[in-house]
């Protein structure tokens, strides 16, 4: 009997229940949810609305916790329920553009409560029209300058052609004999001047001979 008791005690000590008792208890679902909440921060929309951010929150991908102003502006004009409704009606590929559009329209409405984004669009259209008018004016000035340049080039070409026509006549005039030019201005030629000098010398000699002939008469 004592041997059987010792065997039972040893078998009880080696049973699985005794080994399981030494392991730590598994974490409960509440503890796991608590740990998940600590790790995951709520989106800016749920944080502003003071509600729990679900795992499949529609607003979380487009309103991160680092951009609370983005949701504040959209919520102020459209409201949270309308934003959620808009996003649920659109496919996921268009939701990011829709959120950007809503934020832009809301900020424009806050800046200009009367006209909103329509006022900004009108202002941009006005600037576009002014720039178009300036562009047309600049293009007209460019065309005018091109025409003036073309006229100037034509005048220069005409003057060059006239100069080329006048150059042969001037060369012919410059290549005429020097004697003709001297005769035109009544300038005696060097030969005529030499002949006149020789005549003067002969006349002087004749006068001296006459003086020598009349000299005995006076004596």
Automatic annotation (TrEMBL):
Taking every annotated instance into account, which residue ranges of this chain make up the domain LOB?
41-142
Against InterPro entries, the record matches this protein to: LOB (IPR004883)
**Domain of life of the native organism:** Eukaryota
Q: Does the keyword Ribosomal protein apply?
A: no
Q: Bias category Low complexity: which stretches?
A: 8-22, 168-183
Going by the UniProt record, its keywords in alphabetical order are: Coiled coil
Which stretches are annotated as coiled coil? 121-148
Stretches the record annotates as Disordered: 1-23, 168-196
Stored PANTHER family:
LOB DOMAIN-CONTAINING PROTEIN 1 (PTHR31301:SF206), LOB DOMAIN-CONTAINING PROTEIN 4-RELATED (PTHR31301)
Per the similarity annotation, which family is this?
Belongs to the LOB domain-containing protein family.
Name the record gives this protein: LOB domain-containing protein 11
Q: Which organism is it from?
A: Stylosanthes scabra
Which gene underlies this protein?
A: LBD11
């Amino acid at each position: 009997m004592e041997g059987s008791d010792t065997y039972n005690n040893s078998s009880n000590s080696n049973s699985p229940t005794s080994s399981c008792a030494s392991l730590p208890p598994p974490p409960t679902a509440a503890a796991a949810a608590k740990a998940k909440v600590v790790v995951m921060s709520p989106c800016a929309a749920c944080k502003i609305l003071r509600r729990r951010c679900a795992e499949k929150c529609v607003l979380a991908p487009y309103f991160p916790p680092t951009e609370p102003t983005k949701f504040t502006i959209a919520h102020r004009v459209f409201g949270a329920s309308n934003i959620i409704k808009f996003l649920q009606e659109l496919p996921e590929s268009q939701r990011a553009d829709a959120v950007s559009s809503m934020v832009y329209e809301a900020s424009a409405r806050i800046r200009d409560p009367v006209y909103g984004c329509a006022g900004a669009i009108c202002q941009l259209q006005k600037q576009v029209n002014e720039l178009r008018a300036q562009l047309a004016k600049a293009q007209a000035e460019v065309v005018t300058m091109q025409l003036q340049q073309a006229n100037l080039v034509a005048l220069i070409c005409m003057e060059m052609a006239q100069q080329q026509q006048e150059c042969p006549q001037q060369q012919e005039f410059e290549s005429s004999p020097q004697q003709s030019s001297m005769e035109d201005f009544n300038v005696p030629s060097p030969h005529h001047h030499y002949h006149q000098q020789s005549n003067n010398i002969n006349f002087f000699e004749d006068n001296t001979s006459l003086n020598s002939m009349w000299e005995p008469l006076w004596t």
